[in-house]
Amino acid sequence: MSVDTRPHTGVTAAPPRSDASTAELIKQASGQLSHLVRQEMRLATAELAQKRRAAGKGASLMGAGGVLAFYGGAALIGTVILALALVWPAWLAALVVGVFLLLVAGVLALAGRASMRRAASPVPGRAVDSLRQDVAELRERTHR
Fold it and tell me: Which residues span the membrane (predicted)?
């Protein structure tokens, strides 16, 4: 069972009057169609804004991963290398610390990329589906 998530527009179809001319009916239908298209455009705009926020979150995670990789490496690399150099040769200590920092940066970047992929396509899917339903219904009504 499908639930209509579109906002109620407040516009209801007036019952057709038997004395209304064809021109009046066409004018009324045109006005209602214009209002419907405006409402669908508002829905599409809202859906795109939601998708932009999700993509922004993914970009933020990727940026945070990059910043942490840089500053973490810069702040701790000297201390850790010196500590490990007490047990290993200095070059080996530097290599181990560098590889570890790159692995952490890679994990954060992958998490950010996964979040951006969940943001999905920028096409407003619900609004497009709703417009398709509206067009199909209009076609059905005009062919009666």
Answer: 61-84, 90-111
Q: How many domains does the chain have?
A: 1
For residue 44, give the 3-state DSSP assignment.
Answer: helix
Q: Is residue 15 part of a domain?
A: no
Let me know: does 26 contact 70? Beta carbons within 8 Å.
no
Residue 92 binned pLDDT confidence (cut-offs 50, 70, 90): very high
| CB-count exposure of residue 112 (10 Å: 0-12, 13-18, 19+) | buried
In this prediction the pTM is 0.38
Residue 1 included in any domain: no
Strands (E), 8-56: none
Q: Is residue 5 part of a domain?
A: no
Q: Which residue has the tokens 């009916």?
A: 25
